[in-house]
Amino acid sequence: MTSESVSNDPGRFDPVSPPDDTIRRTAEARQLQLTKPAGSLGRLEVLACWASACQGICPPAPFERARVVVFAGDHGVARTGVSAYPPEVTAQMVANFLGGGAAVNTLADRAGASVRVVDMSVDGDTDPTVSAYKVRRSSGVIDREDALTTEETLRAIEAGRSIADYEIDSGADLLIAGDMGIGNTTPATVLIAALTDTEPVAAVGRGTGIDDAGWIRKTAVIRDTLRRARPVVRDTVALLRTVSGADIAAMAGFLAQASARRTPVILDGVVVTAAAMVAEELAHGARAWWLAGHRSTEPAHTIALKHLQLDPLLELDMRLGEGSGAVAALPILQGAVATLAFMATFDEAGVSTGDVTEADVADVD
What we know:
elongated
């Protein structure tokens, strides 16, 4: 996959062209020749045709170099009581990712994916191998001050773009963005509510498992932050500067660039999908290159998925983040690709279709 031309301005991306529709139609035609009633594999058939269109070949190739990139960052708003965990956990979890001990490490290992963690704005020192793109320590307390400066916002977007380029140039054929940051569901919910004009009470969830008092505090913070977000909602860079964080801004750049580079992505939960909504604003058409791995328990996630017109592959009541839900969905996509690539056709298997028509077999359960 080669890089498409983009503006030198890190806050700007060219519109993204969709996956190859001619190849998609070829894949759909091949589905009708496989040894099964037409449509009998349900959504697996749709997924396989999407993968084929993304790769530009039919039959599609198995994804062999899936890469998870976990974007880590602290959020000043975490110190207002919106999370069940203290901010210090973010840096501790970065070390856990590096040691291979997190849920996403385990799930990725089973799914054949590799994991990288990037410190964008952790409020502490991390291993030099993960902090090369670090923009700052933590973000501003977004209900009363900007998360970032404009320069920091642009640096974060550019970092995400560069990370996507590096992974694709290194051979990644599918990307997954993960998140790690105590308090990060608060800016994510603000972004989703602002971009969809949703009231806080309809969007605020329990995040890491806050109690009723914590939910009330979180709702008040999001309400106050939305007042700051709404005046800049049409200016994507200003919106990121005002109410996001370096981790979310970098994810937006990463997702936009992955689509510009014609590389498929599986989205994770509410934080990553909030960044995806922003990425679609930065690079119109980017969403055609994404699958929704799962639906989390966060109400804002369902709102964001509806906005992006994406149907999740899994509904397992997950709310961890890290990219875990996307990685859990990866074997389903791999299975879908395998059916289109390796199943025998009726002719190859010597199986007769008799006098049954395409319309007839489409109705078979």
